[in-house]
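Please go through the protein record below and explain what the tokens say about the fold. Record follows.
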Amino acid sequence: MTTSDFTKSIWLWLLQEGGYWTANEIAAQNKLKVDDVFEVLSRMAVRNLIKKRKSANCRRLVYGVDGTCMVPCGMAVAEVQEP
């Protein structure tokens, strides 16, 4: 899987699931290595593809997609729309 495909798959998962998730939760739900997920999430947050904030208890970073996030380059509308 290329970095672009990895980014798209995580972005779509966050969009479909909604809410905010830790890197550990995302990795566990998608059967991925947490280090790989954290690295991609960090890059995605810098590029405004996802939002990063502290959790309610301020102990962990959580990530999610909201209406102000950019869509990853190369994605088609059909990939973003719900079935």
